[in-house]
């Protein structure tokens, strides 16, 4: 509701959900990426498993088993594995959900209704079975290829089938690396955005400032003088206490998302064109508000106790409003009104001071234009007390409740919170998004490393004879390690190149959630590349080191 009695109408869904929808969809996409990496790892494991069963499958087909029957058997096995994995995952989900909800900030709507219910169970099991069937089908098709019969009879078809299977495994690893890099870059952007928001100057000093909402009923305080008198007495009694450095009141606290509090106004001598009304944020404050919040006065004077219902009408404006409407001019002494400027009885308010800008909606939105009017010249029954004190918050709030009760025992104090908590709360959703995306990125990174390690380990096992011959002919450990690492890093480099393209596309999706940095932030991209390359290098070095320790005599005698 606006101070003049008007209303702002927004759709109910927007009022409840706000701008959470887009970031939740982004996080849902991150979950999908992690699922794809898991599926790629499973597909690789099934391919390796199928390679070890080539002769078994060939014999089955040789004695009459059809290709369809073999595929059905292999797909059924993968579906059973997927189902068992889904059951295990759901077991962890029940405990993990409670842990996740403990990290969720209150600002994300409807989180209290989040739970693992039958719909979630059904959806999860359906996804598990679908992925098991889908990613088990390709290895099954590969394993039941007719070339296996040739491999048994002639020993020559296996090379072709092995090459096809190897290309598939390599393609899955490349995809894992690319997706991991995309998530790492996204997490890097969220971290850099969070750091940038932490460095934003809110325009006031929140340290040792405590706030609380007081709302008195109009049924008992129907006259402006009664409302003004109530808040004046609260402020004076709080000021009189030695542990209180100062107390003030304001209509709407800064860093207050969801509150508009805007009002159209007119400037004397400057008639507005139709549909071009001047609009600014409207604030009611007590005289000491700017000092208590440490908001710098740029020119003129601040509001004073004498600016009451009996004094001339005055206002203070912020720098943003002065620059928008009086760029290059001195706004001091100018007159503004919220009433009909053509009415001879309209009261005009003189601008007596200009103060620095403060962030109103959030830290990532630019300061709005604002007009500060003495609360005693336009009373409202609900104001927020702003109290500066080095005492603990609970002691300050207890004192405020006591003072309010002494004035009117029927009134209550609500929404008690320090300004430092207000700032921290405003960043809570960003912090949660950063934590979740970082967690998904870490999981993806580890899974990609495991997948790369598995493929290279299998490659080393398949090439043990070749490696043994190389060592027997004089190849040193460094040569063997270089051979294996080069093969692995070739896949990594292709994956990183693909991931860079994907990361640039991701930026277009999450650009609205990036603040204080370039959406195409090179630092986030380079950090993601370096981190992915380092983890991949470790994943390559372990099987390479094992290959370098191959005893050529043992390998050659075995063959």
Description:
The chain is an alpha+beta fold and 559 residues long. The chain folds into two domains: 19-200 and 427-558, no CATH class; 217-410, no CATH class. Helices cover 58% and strands 11% of the residues. It has 17 helices and eleven strands. The chain has a six-stranded mixed β-barrel with strand order 3-4-9-6-8-7. A four-stranded antiparallel β-sheet has the order 2-10-1-11. The longest helix has 41 residues, at 158-198. The N and C termini lie far apart (84 Å). 35% of the residues are buried. Residues 1-6 and 154-161 have low confidence and may be disordered.
Keywords:
single chain; 559 residues; alpha+beta; six-stranded mixed β-barrel; four-stranded antiparallel sheet; 17 helices; disordered N terminus
